Amino acid sequence: MKDYISNSHISIKGARQHNLKSININIPRDRLVVITGVSGSGKSSLAFDTIYAEGQRRYIESLSSYARQFLDQMQKPDVDIVEGLPPTIAIEQRTSNTGPRSTVATTTEIYDYLRLLFAKAGTPYCHNCGTKITRQTIEQILDRVSRIPKGEKIMILSPIIKGKKGEHKEIFQKIRRKGFVRARVDGDIVDAGTDIKLSRYKIHDIDVVVDRLVVKSNIQKRLYDSIRTSLELGEGVVMVARKKKGKWEDMVFSEHYSCPGCGIGYEELAPRMFSFNSPYGSCKECEGLGMTLEFDPELIIPNEELSLGEGAVHAWSNWSTITQDHYSQLIDEFSGKFGIDLKMPFKKINKRFRNILLNGETQNNNADSFEGVIPTLWRIYDKTNSPDVVKRLERYMDYDVCEECSGARLRPKALSIKMNGKSIAEVTSMTVEKASGFFKSLKFQGERKILAGRILKEITTRLSFMIDIGLCYLTLNRRSNTLSGGEMQRIQLATQVGTGLIGACYVLDEPTIGLHQRDNKRLIGTLEKLKDSGNTVIVVEHDEAAIRSADYVIDLGPGAGEHGGTVVADGTVPEIISNNGSLTSQYLNNKLKVEVSGLRKKADMKNSILIKGASENNLKSIDVRIPLKVFCCITGVSGSGKSTLIDQILNRALMKAIYGSRAKPGKHSRITGIERIDKVIEIDQSPIGRTPRSNPATYTNLFSHIRNVFALTKESKIRGYKSGRYSFNVKGGRCELCEGQGTKKIAMNFLPDMFVLCEQCRGKRYNPETLEIRYKGKTISDTLDMSVEEAYDFFRNIPRIERILRTLRNVGLGYITLGQSSTTISGGEAQRVKLSTELAKQSTGKTLYILDEPTTGLHFADIQNLLKILHRLTDMGNTVIVIEHNLDVIKTADYIIDLGPEGGERGGEIVAVGPPEKICRIRKSYTGRYLKSVCGM
Question: CB burial class (10 A; 0-12, 13-18, 19+) of residue 894?
Fold first, then answer.
C-alpha cells in the first residue's frame, strides 16, 4: 500500500512550515492540482516552502560537495515526512530584476537557437555596398592586396586563436615548430621564440606573423606564397595589416566569405557573431545595450516657463557660487551676442537660438563661438575624475537609442547576415505572433534544409506555446525588466514547456495574473498539456476558471495567519463545492458573491482629466477622458496598452507636474485637468524593503509610534531612555552580538547557510536592559512578534497606532506579524501594505490612487474587503484608477475604459467606455462579453 501511495501520490505528513498546523495530505501525482484559500492561509508555505523546497533540497544534496558550495541551498522545511516527490521546478510570479541585456528572446532561449540558425543558414551581404558575399579565391585575394599603394608597410597574418581563454602554450610551440618567429598577441607583436605567458582566464587573440614587407611592384610571387601559407595555417582566413597614419588597420580575406568589391572579409559565420553579450558581436559604441547615455534637453531645462535670468538651465544651478557665476556670465554673453531677452520665458525664445544655447554654434569654429550647454557638460563629464561630479551630471542624462546600431545591439557585419531579407535584429523586433508566421514561411534547400530543420522546430514550438498563453503581442527584443510579474512567469512557463521534461513536479504561483478572461482557457490548456506529458502541476490560484479546471483542489484556511494553516477541504471540484465548511465552495456554488452595496456613482465628464494624443508604444494617438471622484477600471486584453496609458503617460505626467519628477512621460500631445488633482499615489507590487531589517511596522511608520509609547513609560523616563533606545537598527538598546537581527548567519560551505537564534538575546533583538522596560506587561520585542490583529487589540486606546493597525486589518493583512521581514512578504501583500499606509493618512479629497492588479494573491473574500476600501476612497471625493482583469472588480466599477481590441500592434485603441452595463452591450469588447455573465445580463 505504501509503494502504491508513493508512486501515485505525494504524501506529506506533519507539515509545520510557517503557519501550517502539522497537516497531513496526499496529493495525486500527474494531475493538475490547485491550492487555494484566503490570503495568508498557508498556500505558499505548502506549495513553495514545503513541496518545492524539499524537492530542491534533495536534488542539491545529491550533488557532490564541491558542486554544492557554488549553489544557493534551501533550508530543510519543517515537515516530518515527504514521500513520492518528483524533481521540483518553481515558476514564481514576481517582477523581473534582470539587467537591461535580458530580453524575451534570451529568457526563452529562442535567441540561442536564432544565433545558431543565422550562423548555419544565413546569407551574408556586404554591410558597405550590399553585395551578396561569396567565397574568394587566392587569386582574388592577391589582386585586392596588390592594389594597396606602393610604399605602404603591410603584414601578412594568419589568425589561429580568436577570442578564446587559456594560456595557449601548445599554440606557441606549434608556431615555433612551423618556423615562424613572430606572433601578434592581443594586438601586440611578440617574439614567438620567448616564453610567452598569458592569463589563463582572459580572452585572447593570437595571429601568426607570416610575412612583413613594403608594397612594391616586384613582390607578387612573395605575396602569393605568403597568402597561401596564411590560408593554410588559418584554415582559409588571411589578415593583411596595413600601416596608415601610424596605426595598423586589418583587412580580412577569406576563402569562405569576402566582398569582391569592397574587400571586406568575414570570418566563418558562428553563433557568437550574433551575441550582443560577446565582444565579437556587440556594437562597439553601446557594447550591446542598444542604448547610450546622453544629456537630455528636457532634464537640463525641465521648466520652459522660466526665463534664462530665472535659472531655466537647471543643469547649471546646482554648482558652487563661483561656478554658477561663470555660467551666468556665459548666459549673459549668449544673450548679448544673439539679442536674447533674459526675462523672456525659454519656450518663447526662437527655436534656432534655443538650439544654439543647447548644442552650440556647430557651423562656427571660431575661438569666440558659443560652446553650448550640452557640449560644455560633455567636456566636464569626460574630463572629471570626481564620482560626485559624475553623479551630479548623470541627473541630466537619460538613455537614448544608440546612433551607431540604431538599437540593434550588434555590429554591422552581424546585421548584414540575412534570412529571407531580414537581419537577426529585424526578426527579434517582430511580435511573437509575427515571428511565428515568419519562421513557418521559411523554405530551405539541400544541406541548409537539414541544418535548419531541427533548429526551426525548437523556435516554432516555443513561439506556439507563447501564443497559447496569451503573449502573442510581446516583441522578442522586449527587455525582460519591463515585463510584469505575470508576463515573466508565463515566459518561464513557455520555456519549461519547451524543454519537454517528463516526470517533474511544477509549482506555479497564480499564472493567471495579468491575463484577460479571453486568454485564460488557453493558459489552462497549456497547464493541462504539461500534465498530459507526465508531470505533476501544482498551482497556487484564486481564479475561478482555473479552480474549476483542476483535477484536485486543496482549500486551506479557514482564516489567515494563526487562524489558517489547516486543510479545510480537499478533493475534486464537485467534492469541494459540496463541502459546506469551505469558504471557497460558497463562492463557487454562488451562496456568496463579491458585491459592493450602494448605488453606482455617475461619472461627471466635465470633472475629468483629458489625455490628448496618447501615442507611446502601441497607443494609436488616442484621446482618453478619465472622470474624477469615481472608481475607474482600465481593462483590455494583455498588451492592449493599459499600463502604457496609465503608468507611462498619466502617472509620470502627474508626478512631473505635482512633484517635479524627472521621469519622462510617454508620448502624448497634452493633458488637461491636472489642476483638479493635488496628490497622486501609485501603489504597485514592488517590495516594501530589500533587507531583512525592513518590516511592516517600520514601513508604515507604526514602529516609531510604538517606540514613543515605550519611551513615555515611567521606568523609561527614570532611566532617561528616549525612543531611539528602542530601535534595533542603531546602537544603544539593541543586542550588539546580532546587531538587532535576532539571528546569526552561519556559513556552512557545503550545506545551506544556517540562521540560528542569537545566543545572547535569544531572538529578542534587544539587550537585557532595554527588555526590562514593559508596557502593559509586554516588551518592545513582544510587540514585534504580535500579529496585526493582536496588536490592534493591544494598542486600541492609542489613536495614532490604532488608525494604522485598523487600515492593515481592513486590507486583509490582520495575519501578518509587525516584525515580519519584508523579504518574506509577497508582491500582493506588499501592495496592500502600501495601500494601508496611504489609507492611514488624512485624505484631502483630491487624491488620485493608481493600482495595477490589486487582486493579486487575493481570495474571493479578500477581494470583497478590498473593494469596500477602494469605494470608501471615492466616497471621500478621491479618484481610484485600477488596471484589472478580475471580473468581480470590474463589475463594481463606476466607469470602465476598455482598450484593445487585441494586444500589441492590433491594440492601443479605445474599444468602449462607460459603466459596466454599457460595456456589456458592446459586441467588439472582449471585456463586455465576459462581463455579461457576472452582471446577470
Answer: buried
Q: What is the mean pLDDT of residues 754-760?
A: 76
For residue 28, whether the previous peptide bond is cis, meaning omega lies within 30 degrees of 0, is no
- Rounded to the nearest angstrom, the gap between the alpha carbon of residue 397 and the centroid of all alpha carbons in its chain is 21
**Per-position DSSP letters for 409-461, written without gaps between them:** -B-HHHHTEEBTTB-HHHHHTSBHHHHHHHHHH----HHHHHHHHHHHHHHHH
Distance CA 232, CA 228 (A): 6
pLDDT at residue 198 is higher than 80: yes
Q: Apex CA 351: angle with CA 346 and CA 354, to 5°? A: 55
**Higher per-residue pLDDT: 315 or 928:** 928
- Give residue 2's pLDDT: 47
Report yes or no: 855 and 863 within 8 Å, Cβ to Cβ.
Answer: yes
Pairing of strands 265-266, 291-295: unpaired
pLDDT attached to residue 814: 87
Nearest to 872 by CA among 836, 919, 925: 836
The answer to whether residues 262 and 180 touch, using CB atoms and an 8 Å cutoff, is no
Q: How far apart are CA 401 and CA 423, in angstroms?
A: 18
Query: Within 13 Å, how many C-alpha atoms sit on residue 669's CB side?
Result: 10
Distance separating the N- and C-terminal Cα atoms of the chain: 52
- So where are the chain's domains? 2-95+484-588, 128-268, 291-401, 608-686+832-935, 696-824
Q: Per this entry, what is the length of the chain?
A: 937
Contact 510, 542 (CB under 8 A): yes
pLDDT of res. 362: 63
Same fold, 2-95+484-588 and 608-686+832-935: yes
Q: Which CATH class is domain 128-268?
A: alpha beta
Measured distance CA(207)–CA(817) in Å, rounded: 65
Tens of pLDDT, residues 129-164: 887 887 778 998 898 898 899 989 999 999 988 888
What secondary structure, in 3-state letters, does 674-708 show? HHHCCEEEEECCCCCCCCCCCCHHHHCCHHHHHHH
d(Cα 463, Cα 492) in Å, to the nearest integer? Answer: 13
Query: For the chain, how are helix, strand and coil distributed in percent, rounded to 5?
Result: 40, 20, 40
Q: Which amino acid is at 244?
A: K
Residues in CB range of 910: below 8 A, 6 or more apart = 622, 624, 897, 898, 899
User: Which CATH number applies to 608-686+832-935?
Assistant: 3.40.50.300
Vertex 563: Cα angle to 557 and 567 (nearest 5): 30
Helix then strand count (H, E) for the chain reads 37, 32
Element (H, E) at 401: strand 397-401
Question: For residues 313 and 327, is the Cβ–Cβ distance under 8 A?
Answer: yes
Q: Could you please state the CATH topology (level 3) that the domain comprising 696-824 is classified under.
A: ABC transporter ATPase like fold (1.20.1580)
Instruction: Give me 650's grid cell.
Output: 498619466
> Of the ranges 72-86, 92-106, 213-227, 747-761, which one carries the lowest mean pLDDT score?
747-761
> Following CA atoms 787, 793, 797, 798 in sequence, which dihedral angle do they give, to the nearest 10 degrees?
10
Fold of 291-401: Helicase, Ruva Protein; domain 3 (1.10.8)
Spatial CB neighbours of 78, under 8 Å, sequence gap ≥ 6: 15, 16, 17, 20
Mean pLDDT lowest among 167-176, 477-486, 793-802, 886-895: 477-486
Alpha helices, DSSP H, located in 442-536 = 446-468, 485-499, 517-532
Rounded Cα distance between 43 and 64, Å, is 32
pLDDT in tens, 501-544: 899 999 998 888 878 888 888 889 889 989 999 999 999 999 99
Give the class (CATH, top level) of 2-95+484-588: alpha beta
